Every structure is written in structure tokens, then in C-alpha cells.
Amino acid sequence: MKKETFIEYANNTFKDKALELVLKNIDLFFDDIEIKHQQKYKLNDEVSLKRGTFLHGIPGYIENFDWIVENGFLAVDFTGKSEGKNKIKNSIGMWNIQEDISLKDYITSYSGFTITYTIGRGPGSKKMSELVPYHMFDNFTEELNNREDVWTYWGEKTKEVTFLPSLVSDKRQIAFILNMESEYAQELSKADVWNVEYDEETLKEFLDYRYLPQFVELRFNKDATSTDREAAIMFGLPIKLVEGVFVGRKLENDQNALLYIKSKLSHCYICNLNGKVIVE
């Protein structure tokens, strides 16, 4: 897709600060700067995720992989495929790693549940949310049941289970690991809809109007059930930021698929849900 097409869409959609941010990211996206990825791992090494790393999963088995490789991570609104269907529009969603962690521990944590519980009863009660790692649900709920100050609790799967390969679901089989350490990547990541520096007027073209008031508040009151680990980058991010790919159990056992992924992203390592490199 041509840069001019994206610029035209931006000029017809945004104004003022929002337009400035989007046009800057379009320019950065198409910048011919070269990103050199050093070979970090050998076969069977454990993958580590640094704070600020981005992860992005895609649906399907292998059929959507080529489109990402050829076009990069683009907000669907700019492609004309499903404009206006998402609560957060004109941006591409990313999982934003909040602290240094091994990929194995990350997957274990976010293949679990989010538990919300109330301390006390009535108007003075306080609602808390915590992540419960994979296979730790019974242990955690037993602890809650033994606490006299906890009145009620409920759980739901983490959002990552829906959008990334996980230990509990095979619905997603591919996710990309984006290295965001370079100055170039840092500039791109500034145009994040979740950035608390942007006011409501700037954000309104990025959000469904029914969601805007709630979103503005959520940015300052993040918790485990809402948005404490998400990013939404205006317009998109280029494929050259990808340093690795991690796959679900089905793809891990498909040697032809793994070879195909490697042929398209020759500089990337491929790792599994154990957090270990299976193709260097």
C-alpha cells in the first residue's frame, strides 16, 4: 500500500495534534533506516523480554502471516477493511512488557486468570484485581476463601489468551516479538493512544465515542482487568522491528511451517510456549 494513500486518509480523518502525530508516524514507518538485529540466542536458549518490548499476535494458522510480513503492523482503519469496528480505532494494538521477564514466565502468568475480589461489604468495600498464573487458580481461590476480609470474588481469562499463543488455547498460533530499544522505535512508540500526555480532544478520533469517557479515566487508573499492559500505536509499526516469533503447540510441531516463517524472516529466532528457541 502506498504512503500517499495513508496520508490522504490521515488528512481526511484527523486535525491539529492528532494529525501531527499520525503524519509523523507515517513518515517514520516509511523511513528507510536500517535496523540491525544481533543474534541473541542459540537453539534451546531461553528467551528474555526486556521492559518496553512489544508483542503482537495474529489470528489463523499461517494464512495471515504473509500479509504482516509484506505490509507491517497497520491499523485496519487505514486499510479500509473494518473501519469503525474497534473501540480503539486508527491504531495497532500491542502488548507492552512492563518489566524484564523471561518469555516462559510471561506466558505462564498470562495463560492464567484475572481474579477480581472485594474487601469488605457495602459502600465502603474495595475492589482489587490480580493476575493468577496458569494452574494456580485453585491455590489462589483457597487463599481468598480463608480470608475474613474478602466478601466475594470472580474471574475471567486474561486478554492475552484471546490474542496471543497460550498454554490454555490453540486459537492463536503466531505472535511477533518487536525490539523497541532503538531511538527509531522509541519515536514510533510515543504515538500511543494510552499515553497520558494526550488530551481528550486529541484522542477522540482514536476511540469510539461511547468508550471515550471511560478510556480517558482508565489511562490514570489501570489495573489487571483493564489496561496496565497494553499499547495502541497510531497508524502502525514496520516489520523491521521484529526480532523473533513465538508459536503455539500446533505450529511448533509443523516443521514446514517453521521453515516457511524462517524463510520470510531470516534474521528472526523462533521460540515455543516453553520460552525456548526452536529455530535460531
Layout: helices, strands, pairs:
Blueprint: H1 3-13, H2 16-29, E1 48-49, E2 54-58, H3 65-71, E3 73-74, H4 76-79, E4 91-96, E5 101-102, H5 103-110, E6 113-119, E7 126-132, H6 137-145, E8 150-157, H7 159-163, E9 174-178, H8 183-190, H9 200-203, H10 212-218, E10 230-234, E11 236-237, E12 242-247, H11 249-252, H12 255-264, E13 269-271, E14 277-279
Parallel strand pairs: 12-13
Antiparallel strand pairs: 1-5, 2-4, 2-9, 3-11, 4-10, 6-7, 6-8, 9-12, 13-14
Helix pairs in contact: 1-2
Quick structural overview:
This protein is of the alpha+beta class and 280 residues long.
SSE-based structural type: alpha+beta
- Mean pLDDT over the residues: 92
Stretches with pLDDT under 50, minimum 5 residues: none
Shape verdict: globular
Give the ordered list of helices and strands: HHEEHEHEEHEEHEHEHHHEEEHHEE
The termini sit apart by: 31 Å
Tally of individual domains: 2
**Helix fraction bin:** 25-40%
Major sheet description: 7 strands, mixed
The largest sheet has its strands arranged as 10-4-2-9-12-13-14
Number of extended strands: 14
Q: Count of helices?
A: 12
Rg is 20 Å
